Structure formats: structure tokens, C-alpha cells
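Input C-alpha cells:
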């Protein structure tokens, strides 16, 4: 077995726990309708953008016009991510979120998620640093795609709230019978009393993204849904150091 191979194991497909009947039913129905509408709008925008991009390439547009198209592409990508987030939350609330869990090297999952955000960190003038020595060969049972998505939500939030030349630190390791991941930024931190509210859908303000990010306050809610579907826990980490920190704890078995 090579150093980059995951430990062999049989995959386990599970569903997240179902919430009580009627719990937040109105919110779920609203989210489903919004998601359906978003998907239709996104499809139309992407089709129009694709046609415009073909014309732009043929016309060899100047740099400002190419930059505008790049911004449009990012905007469409943002819309797609919102639709995916709403769909995931809706499935999680109804107990329909399926997990394909199998042992995954924790270090590699974290590295993969962070690699996708190095470009964003560079655009924001933020340094992304990893301290994963304590991960060793930890391999908790994870749905890798979903766990990377949970980490992406934390990284996105941390990078946006870090000052230019700030540092976002990502640590991993073991604490008793759980694997632990911490994402810490050097931003304004979480307001006292917001430790639970920040993980609720549509929460904004404090160290939770609002106008400059997804605008809906879904990122940390998505992370919570994914972590709890794995039987884990996500929380705001208390520290004397400045900035905000979020910790994920996942069962090792």
C-alpha cells in the first residue's frame, strides 16, 4: 500500500437522522421552492453566458471586457453553490442526506480542501497554513466529498474575515476517541452569545458571512449539517487569542 492509499474498508452508505415530523416544515418548503427557482435562473444565466463567452473569444475582446466575463463566471458559480447549499440543507432537515462513509486519512481530506482555497486566500492577501503533524494516520469513517464541503464552508468564512496579511490556521489531530479539526482566523471573532446562532441557516453578522459572501448565511449551517450527519459536533472554539475559531469533532469509529 502506497503512502497515498486510503486504508481498505467497505463503504458504508447511511442517511442522516430524520428530524421530528413537522419540525421547521415551513422553512423546508420555502427552501425547496427557492432552490427550484434558483436552479432555473442559474440554467438560463449559464446558457446566456456560454453564448456570450463564445462570441467574446471570437472577437478578441480587450482586457476590461475579459475581466467582466470572469466576474460573471464567478457570480454564476456563486449562484450554483447557493443552490447546492439549499438543497443539502433541505435533504438534511428531512433525513434524506445520504453519506458514503469509509475510512479516509484525515490529513489528506484537510489538505484537499485547503488546496482548493489557496487561490482565494491569495486574492484576499491571506496566508493559509496547515499544522497536521498530529493527524498521523488517523482515518475516521467519512464521506470525503461532503466533509471537504464542510471544511470549504469554514475556510471560505475564515478567509473572508481575515485582514490582509492575516493568517488562517488549520490544525488536525486526535483528542481521545474523536478526530479534531480546527480552523482559526485573525478576524473580528464571534460575538459573545453567538456560539449556537452562527450555525443556524440564514444567520449573518459577527464572524458569519453576509454581504461579501453567499449573502444568505448558509455556509456554517451546511458545515453543521454535514458534521452532525457524521455523528460529530461542530462548535465555536473559545480562546484568548484574537480572531474566530471553529472546531469539528468526528468519531473515529
Amino acid at each position: 500500500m502506497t503512502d497515498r492509499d486510503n486504508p481498505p474498508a467497505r463503504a458504508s452508505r447511511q442517511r442522516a437522522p430524520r428530524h421530528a415530523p413537522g419540525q421547521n416544515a415551513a422553512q423546508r418548503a420555502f427552501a425547496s421552492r427557492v432552490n427550484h427557482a434558483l436552479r432555473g435562473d442559474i440554467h438560463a444565466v449559464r446558457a446566456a453566458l456560454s453564448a456570450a463567452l463564445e462570441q467574446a473569444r471570437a472577437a478578441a475582446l480587450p482586457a476590461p471586457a475579459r475581466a467582466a466575463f470572469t466576474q460573471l463566471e464567478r457570480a454564476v458559480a456563486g449562484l450554483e453553490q447557493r443552490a447546492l447549499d439549499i438543497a443539502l440543507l433541505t435533504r438534511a432537515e428531512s433525513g434524506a442526506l445520504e453519506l458514503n462513509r469509509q475510512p479516509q486519512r484525515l490529513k489528506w481530506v484537510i489538505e484537499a480542501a485547503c488546496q482548493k482555497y489557496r487561490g482565494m486566500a491569495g486574492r484576499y492577501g491571506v496566508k493559509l497554513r496547515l499544522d497536521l503533524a498530529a493527524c498521523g494516520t488517523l482515518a475516521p469513517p467519512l464521506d470525503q466529498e461532503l466533509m471537504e464541503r464542510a471544511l470549504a464552508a469554514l475556510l471560505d468564512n475564515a478567509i473572508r474575515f481575515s485582514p490582509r496579511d492575516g493568517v488562517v490556521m488549520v490544525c488536525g489531530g486526535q483528542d481521545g476517541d474523536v478526530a479534531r479539526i480546527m480552523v482559526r482566523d485573525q478576524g473580528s471573532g464571534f460575538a459573545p452569545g453567538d456560539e449556537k446562532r452562527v450555525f443556524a441557516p440564514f444567520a449573518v453578522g459577527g464572524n458569519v458571512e453576509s454581504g461579501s459572501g453567499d449573502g444568505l448565511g448558509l455556509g456554517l449551517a451546511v458545515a453543521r449539517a454535514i458534521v452532525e450527519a457524521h455523528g460529530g459536533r461542530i462548535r465555536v472554539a473559545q480562546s484568548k487569542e484574537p480572531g474566530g475559531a471553529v472546531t469539528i469533532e468526528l468519531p473515529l469509529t
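Residues 1-11, 19-23, 209-214 have pLDDT under 50 and may be disordered. Residues 176 and 252 are 9 Å apart (CA to CA).
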